[in-house]
Every structure is written in structure tokens, then in C-alpha cells.
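can u do me a favor
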């Protein structure tokens, strides 16, 4: 019987393309976990995911309350989608989510990024999206490692035991 030796993951390259609070935190939690496991970690923010590394929006992300079939109310009851469009509902739900994250000692986005980069993780912005949204390097979080084309990002993803994860 031929048994293959399992080899550990060496590198993860994550693409964060959504700017909703829950989507950004999914990427940050996964990236932080990878860094803590000693895995080379690259985070690439594109399209609305850029909000997570844009200074004026990074700590005020919102939860998607409309078109989110997985949204639940306290107690686990389904969240009526029609409520998500009412004035103030998105802000209230987002505030509640941030409070729940704070209660679990989850840091705000900028601090989470600091933890990831302090552990050796790298953070990049997508050149196409930066150009499309007319952003400049100065608009982005100070510790962004660079503004890359998708081709340059793929070059970072080269190598055995590498995973590309789209969040």
C-alpha cells in the first residue's frame, strides 16, 4: 500500500473582494490564523474589499442586511430581508455586530491588520480597483505593502503547497 506523506501548507494568498463587515472579518480571521500557524500569508484587497484598507472606511464597515439569506436575528430567527432596507436598520445591525465582535475580543479592522503584518503577513491593494475607485496610495492604510496588478499577485502565489483563497 502506497501512503503519501502529508506536507503542510506553506503559503496562502487570500483575495478579499467584498467590503461587508462579515466578509472582511472572514478574511482577517483566516489570515491571522495562517500567520499564527507560521504560514506565509498574502492578503489582496480588490473591488469593494478595498474599503477594509481605505483609511476613511476601514473602521466603519457595515453588515449586509439586504439580500443576505443567512442573516439571523437574536435567538436565531431568520431576519426578514425587507427590514434591511428600512432607514437605520443597517447601521443598527452593524453596530450590534461590532459590539458582539468586541465582546469576543476581536480587534477593529486596523488593529487586526496590524496583528497580521506584525506576524509577517503582507497586505496588497489591487491596482485595477484602486484606479477604478480613483484612490491613491495616501488613501490606503499606511502599512499596505503595495498596489499590485493581478499578474503581480499571481506571481506571489507561485510555489508548491500554496493555496489561493477567495473570501
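np, heres the sequence
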Amino acid at each position: 500500500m502506497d501512503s503519501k506523506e502529508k506536507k503542510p501548507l506553506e503559503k496562502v494568498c487570500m483575495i478579499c473582494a467584498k467590503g461587508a463587515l462579515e466578509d472582511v472579518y472572514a478574511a482577517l480571521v483566516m489570515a491571522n490564523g495562517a500567520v499564527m500557524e507560521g504560514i506565509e500569508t498574502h492578503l489582496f484587497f480588490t473591488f469593494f474589499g478595498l474599503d477594509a484598507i481605505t483609511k476613511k472606511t476601514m473602521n466603519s464597515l457595515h453588515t449586509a442586511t439586504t439580500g443576505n439569506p443567512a442573516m439571523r436575528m437574536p435567538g436565531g430567527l431568520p431576519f426578514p430581508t425587507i427590514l434591511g432596507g428600512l432607514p437605520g436598520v443597517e447601521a443598527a445591525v452593524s453596530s450590534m455586530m461590532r459590539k458582539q465582535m468586541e465582546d469576543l475580543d476581536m480587534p477593529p479592522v486596523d488593529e487586526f491588520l496590524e496583528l497580521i503584518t506584525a506576524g509577517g503577513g503582507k497586505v496588497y491593494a489591487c491596482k485595477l480597483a484602486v484606479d477604478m475607485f480613483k484612490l491613491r496610495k495616501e488613501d490606503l492604510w499606511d502599512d499596505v505593502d503595495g498596489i499590485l496588478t493581478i499578474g503581480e499577485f499571481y506571481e506571489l502565489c507561485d510555489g508548491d503547497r500554496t493555496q489561493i483563497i477567495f473570501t
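The longest strand covers residues 11-16. hope that helps!!
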